[in-house]
Amino acid sequence: MRRPIVGIIGNQYLIDDSYPAHAGGQMNSQAIAAVAGCMPLLIPADPQLVSVPELMQTCDGFLLTGGRPNVHPNEYGEDPTEAHGQFDRARDAVVLPLVRACVERGQPFLGICRGFQEVNVAMGGSLYPEIRDLPGRTNHRMPPDGTLEEKFELRHDVTFTKDGVFHKLMGASEVLTNTLHGQGIKRPGDRIVIDGTAPDGTPEATYIKDAPGFTLSVQWHPEWNAQHDPVSRPLFEAFGDAVRGWSARTSRAA
Q1: What does pTM read for this prediction?
Q2: Which residue, 162, 170, 230, 254, is most buried by CB atoms nearer than 10 A?
Q3: Closest Cα partner for 138 from 188, 182, 176?
């Protein structure tokens, strides 16, 4: 039986600081295959190589991954500064219109970290360049040193809206998550519903109001330990169910 295909948005990467590559974290693919029950397909996010219509025809859903480069502030009407860090304009050019097309069509996607921020920008929102510089906010970045386990350690709570989408999905009003991001939502985009926040008020979980498909996004990294973490597993399982539902509906319509 054919597994539905989830397109995993890749990032530009230099192997040995010299060889250009499109890369995706193994834990993303493992979470899609083992927990969501779908076939992972790494997407080279470059408009010279792929188009949004081609991607939507080929894939049943999309995982908008994290990545070191940030969304370029020109995409939300601001000028770049040193605090904005690195950029990936090719990924911006693919993912932002892809998000809008998926929202309109009802095709499922799950946003993670940069993907969470991309969804907000795609819907007309803006971002803070550095959360830790804001009054009253804490440092949400990963520890600079330590093992992979230490970098992805669960570090703060996320509180969900009572009886909201995430509360119902998790079966809990508060969960413990990792945190590995520098930027965050400044102005929510059109129809963006902030459904979960960190203790310092930073938005951590969103969905798009009245969207016909699965549009959940999180600021943390649920792909880490996705098979066993009680917060990550239901998120990927629900995403997988949505992708299978989309695949079944479009197959019948074909």
Answers
A1: 0.96
A2: 170
A3: 182
* Location of structure tokens 């074909």: 254
Question: In CATH, what number does 5-253 get?
Answer: 3.40.50.880
pLDDT at 1 over 80: no
Domain range summary for the chain, segments of one domain joined by +: 5-253
Q: What would the pLDDT profile of 214-241 be if each residue is shown by its tens digit?
A: 999 999 999 999 999 999 999 999 999 9
Closest CA to 230 of 156, 150, 174: 174
DSSP secondary structure code for residue 39 in this structure: E
Give residue 79's pLDDT: 87
Rg (CA), the chain: 17
* Residues with active-site annotation: 113, 221, 223
**What b/e readout covers 86-110, taking b as 16+ CB neighbours within 10 angstroms?**
ebbebbbbbbbebbeebbeeebbbb
Strand, helix or coil for residue 158: strand
The CA distance from 121 to 148, in Å, is 29
